[in-house]
Structures are given as structure tokens and as C-alpha cells.
């Protein structure tokens, strides 16, 4: 159902069983997947693709022009995965790089009044809480939860199955499987309940993760030495190796770690 009171550009590609409510705006050069719902006063801006069964609530703007002086009007994109929910007054910006896209994966839930900046990439099943701000160039792995009013600064990388508690400001990289809280940000333990109940991790895997982060965050040693201790103390497993790889790929710069390498 497409309301005659909505504006839908004739060039927009509209899938089957799509509902577009009165006063919604669907721009040219957009793709709306099967089963999507666009609520009143929501806007889908040029260069945006919605997957299947996406719901965009009142006042949200998906694919908005980037809020960055480096963008000079060239053609950029925004991609939203299947079954993602975008609540009221969310703003998601397109990329600033010619031909590139801001990407939100499948099964994400973006709560009201949140902002996701240009060129950020969120993988699947991520929760972004109310009033959360994600700057440009941020990468967030699957299953992560950002509570209300979290702030993620530009170019940060967030691992999978992370929980960041409400109001926390993140200005560096957050490794997988942890809980972060407070300002200044501090390591608050591992995200054991989610890992066990929702991600299917075994008790042995969770124990190994806990050991690894005791070395990284609770032994008053350098990150370099902590990695050596992890390799000596924990047998090689996919979860251990994922932690080591994340830390090294991000040049040992971790949020909440007082013993950063220069």
C-alpha cells in the first residue's frame, strides 16, 4: 500500500508488499525491498537501499547527506540489511567517499533519536540504544549492544558481542566479548550472559575469554606483555586468537586500557 499522500519518486524501485504511509518521502535512486514499511514523515534519501522487511519509523532520515566538509556532492550510498528496525528520528548518513556506502547489517535495531555517521559499518544483530551517537568510519561487529546515550568517536572499531553501558564515551577500540562502562571508560568484565545464552559459547570458551582479559586489563602490565602472557597461558582456540588478532590489528590501542603502547 502506497498512500497517495506520500511522495515516491517515479524512479524509485519498490518491492512487493511494501507499505508507505502518508507524508513519507522516498527519493529518486532508492531501492525499497519486499515487505518494507515506511511510516509517516520518514525520509529515504537518494542512494539508499533497504533490504526486505525493514521498518522505518516516523521522522527518521535514512541516507541523509553526510555531515562532513570533505563530502563535495559526489554519488555515495547507504545500505540497510533485511529485518532491521529504524525507530523515530534516527539519522543515518551516506558515505563521503565516491561510490562507497554506509552499511547497516541485517537484524539490527536502531532506537529512537540515534545518529549513525558516514562510512560506518554495523554488522548483523546490533542494538543501538536511544540517543546514541556513532561518528563516521566506525566499525561494529555482530551481536554488540550499545545502551542509551553512548557516544562512539570517529574511526573506532568495536568487536563482536560487546556491551557498552549507558552514557559511556568511546574514543578508542573495544575488543570482542567485553563490557565497557563509566566515564572515563573502564573494562567492566566479560559479556558472559550474552555469550552463553545468545551466542552459544561454552563455559570453557568463556573461561578462556575471562583469562585473556585479566591479562589485558587487570595485571598492570603493558599490552605487549599481556599478549605474550595470553599466548603462554591459554591454549590456541578461535576465541583466544580472535582477541589477539583484534588487539594487534588495532595497534594495541584499546579503550579502558591504562597501559597502552606508544
Descriptive keywords:
4 helices, elongated, 262 residues, 26% strand, nine-stranded parallel beta sheet, ten-stranded mixed beta sheet, alpha/beta
Question: Helices, strands, pairings?
Answer:
Blueprint: E1 7-8, E2 13-14, E3 19-20, E4 25-26, E5 31-32, E6 37-38, E7 43-44, E8 48-50, E9 55-56, E10 61-64, E11 77-80, E12 85-86, E13 91-93, E14 101-104, E15 109-110, E16 115-116, E17 121-122, E18 127-128, E19 133-134, E20 139-140, E21 145-146, E22 151-152, E23 157-158, E24 163-164, E25 169-170, E26 178-181, E27 186-190, H1 192-197, H2 203-217, H3 223-233, H4 238-249
Parallel strand pairs: 1-4, 2-5, 3-6, 4-7, 5-8, 6-9, 7-10, 8-11, 9-12, 10-13, 11-14, 12-15, 13-16, 14-17, 15-18, 16-19, 17-20, 18-21, 19-22, 20-23, 21-24, 22-25, 24-26
Antiparallel strand pairs: 26-27
Helix pairs in contact: 2-3
What does this structure look like?
With 262 residues, the protein is α/β, with parallel strands linked by helices. Helices cover 17% and strands 26% of the residues. It has helices spanning 192-197, 203-217, 223-233, 238-249; strands spanning 7-8, 13-14, 19-20, 25-26, 31-32, 37-38, 43-44, 48-50, 55-56, 61-64, 77-80, 85-86, 91-93, 101-104, 109-110, 115-116, 121-122, 127-128, 133-134, 139-140, 145-146, 151-152, 157-158, 163-164, 169-170, 178-181, 186-190. The strands form three sheets. Strands 3-6-9-12-15-18-21-24-26-27 form a ten-stranded mixed β-sheet. Helix 2 packs antiparallel against helix 3.
Amino acid at each position: 500500500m502506497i498512500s497517495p499522500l506520500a511522495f515516491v519518486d517515479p524512479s524509485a524501485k519498490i518491492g512487493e508488499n511494501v507499505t508507505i504511509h502518508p507524508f513519507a518521502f522516498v527519493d529518486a535512486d532508492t531501492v525499497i525491498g519486499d515487505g518494507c514499511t515506511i511510516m509517516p514523515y520518514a525520509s529515504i534519501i537518494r542512494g539508499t537501499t533497504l533490504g526486505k522487511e525493514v521498518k522505518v519509523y516516523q521522522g527518521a532520515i535514512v541516507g541523509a547527506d553526510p555531515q562532513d566538509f570533505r563530502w563535495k556532492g559526489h554519488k555515495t550510498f547507504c545500505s540497510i540489511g533485511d529485518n532491521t528496525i529504524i525507530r523515530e528520528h534516527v539519522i543515518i548518513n551516506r558515505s563521503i567517499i565516491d561510490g562507497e556506502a554506509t552499511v547497516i547489517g541485517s537484524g539490527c535495531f536502531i532506537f529512537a533519536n540515534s545518529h549513525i555517521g558516514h562510512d560506518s559499518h554495523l554488522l548483523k544483530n546490533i542494538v543501538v540504544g536511544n540517543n546514541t551517537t556513532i561518528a563516521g568510519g566506525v566499525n561494529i561487529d555482530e551481536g554488540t549492544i550499545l545502551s542509551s546515550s553512548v557516544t562512539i568517536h570517529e574511526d573506532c572499531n568495536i568487536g563482536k558481542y560487546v556491551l557498552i553501558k549507558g552514557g559511556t564515551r568511546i574514543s578508542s577500540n573495544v575488543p570482542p566479548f567485553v563490557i565497557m562502562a563509566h566515564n572515563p571508560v573502564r573494562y567492566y568484565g566479560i559479556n558472559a550472559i550474552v555469550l552463553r545464552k545468545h551466542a552459544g559459547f561454552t563455559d570453557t570458551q568463556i573461561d578462556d575469554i575471562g583469562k585473556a582479559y585479566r591479562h589485558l586489563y587487570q595485571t598492570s602490565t603493558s599490552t605487549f606483555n599481556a599478549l605474550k602472557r595470553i599466548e603462554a597461558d591459554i591454549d590456541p582456540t578461535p576465541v583466544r586468537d580472535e582477541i589477539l588478532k583484534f588487539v594487534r590489528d588495532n595497534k594495541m590501542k584499546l579503550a579502558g586500557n591504562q597501559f597502552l603502547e606508544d
